[in-house]
């Protein structure tokens, strides 16, 4: 007897639209802040919380970014699998994650530290480096790497 099963085919794709010579290179947290801020529509940084990831190659050139979560005003649950899926899809070697604080407060919370450590450990298992986690406001940022929190 021959069994016939219907199984959904999974198709994932990444189509870089920027030529290699045009890729932005991240050399500092300030560079990452500027690139990330350019991904927000005007006025949205102070409206609600967003969690994003910058995907980088071994030369710290930006392969792309992804909006991981769009949340409320005071909390933003993050699915780490979504971050790692994007990293694998783009063959990223490094990640910079970021979220904004609509309040304008740049202080790092215990929840921020917890999710950072969980992302770092999950990425490490795939030989992907978590290079930084930025907290963004319209005027400035806090870098976990610069503050020694990674």
Descriptive terms for the model:
single chain; 150 residues; alpha+beta; Cytidine Deaminase, domain 2; five-stranded mixed beta sheet; 5 strands
Structure commentary:
The termini are far apart. This protein has a five-stranded mixed β-sheet with strand order 2-1-3-4-5, sandwiched between helices. It is built from three helices and five strands, in the order αββαβαββ. The chain is about 25% helix and about 25% strand.
Task: Enumerate the spans where pLDDT stays under 50 for 5 or more consecutive residues.
Answer: none
CATH class: Alpha Beta
The number of strands is 5
Main pleated sheet: 5 strands, mixed
Strand order of the largest sheet: 2-1-3-4-5
Cα radius of gyration in angstroms: 17 Å
CATH architecture: 3-Layer(aba) Sandwich
What structural class do helix, strand and pairing data support? alpha+beta
Query: Would you list the SSEs in sequence order as H and E?
Result: HEEHEHEE
- Quick one: overall form? globular
């Amino acid at each position: 007897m021959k069994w016939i099963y219907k199984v959904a085919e999974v198709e994932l794709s990444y189509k870089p639209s920027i030529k290699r010579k045009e890729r932005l290179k991240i050399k500092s947290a300030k560079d990452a802040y500027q690139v990330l801020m350019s991904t927000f529509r005007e006025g949205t940084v102070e409206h609600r919380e967003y969690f994003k990831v910058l995907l980088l190659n071994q030369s710290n050139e930006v392969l792309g970014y992804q909006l991981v979560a769009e949340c409320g005003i005071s909390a933003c649950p993050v699915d780490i699998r979504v971050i790692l899926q994007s990293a694998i899809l783009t063959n990223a070697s490094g990640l910079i994650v970021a979220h904004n604080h609509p309040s304008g407060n740049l202080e790092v919370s215990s929840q921020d530290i917890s999710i950072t450590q969980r992302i770092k450990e999950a990425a490490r298992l795939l030989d992907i480096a978590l290079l930084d986690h930025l907290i963004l406001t319209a005027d400035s940022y806090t870098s976990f790497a610069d503050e020694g929190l990674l």
